[in-house]
What we know:
Elements: E1 4-6, E2 9-11, E3 17-22, H1 27-40, E4 44-48, H2 58-72, E5 77-80, H3 94-107, E6 112-116, H4 121-133, E7 137-144, H5 151-163, E8 168-173, H6 178-195, E9 200-204, H7 216-219, E10 223-227, E11 237-238, H8 239-254
Parallel strand pairs: 3-4, 3-10, 4-5, 5-6, 6-7, 7-8, 8-9, 10-11
Antiparallel strand pairs: 1-2
Amino acid sequence: MNKVCVRSVVIGEGMPKICAPIVGRTREEILLQVRELCMAGPDLVEWRADWFEEVRDKARLSEILGLLRQELGEMPLLVTFRTKQEGGEQEISKEDYEEFLRGVLASGQADLIDVELFMGMELLERIAAEAHEKGVKVVASSHDFEKTPNVGEMVDRLCSMQKAGADLLKLAVMPRDPGDVLTLLAATWQMRECYAAQPVITMAMGGNGVISRMAGEIFGSALTFGSVGRASAPGQVEVGELKKVLRLLHENLLQKGE
């Protein structure tokens, strides 16, 4: 499986990397959160641009991207506009969504960009090609806040992302019971062992799914999301606590059962 290198962070080897979201609605909230995040020390940061009240203003978008790059220094920046249909804060047309992605790429400030699978394979392929020309990595994503699909459907989604040229393959689902969490973990393991050329990122959301955010190194998820203050999705664990658990699992895995 390929490793994805973003600045000094290597995704796809060792402990799962921790990504923390910025979910401020104003410039002031964003600035405060990014400084708190830098102190917490995640491996990378996700700016959830759909939370920002002035995200449709191109000048303000450019300003925030520049501010984030300045504050983060060498910490990698993932930029995401999560659509309302997939759990985000704002409605957006397909045309405006693509324009947003192109604006982020043109800014030169993002290291990674999130593209939703259900916006269409053609859009994902176009943005992936344009992002790679600019040296930006692509996280293809799919979110289901209602249920956990069966193993075959989840693997098919991840394979479609890979076929379209994504660097990281992300799937988040909602479990109704612990059995659904096992289904998600089974799909993750099957994808990693049988099909994945690129790193996989999976999680079951909510309280039932918390274990999936911690067990990635065992089952094959290369990155997890942790919170500093406000979470961007149900079930996120605070970054400091998440680090402790990931390190504990990693150290025990290194013992190889001895």
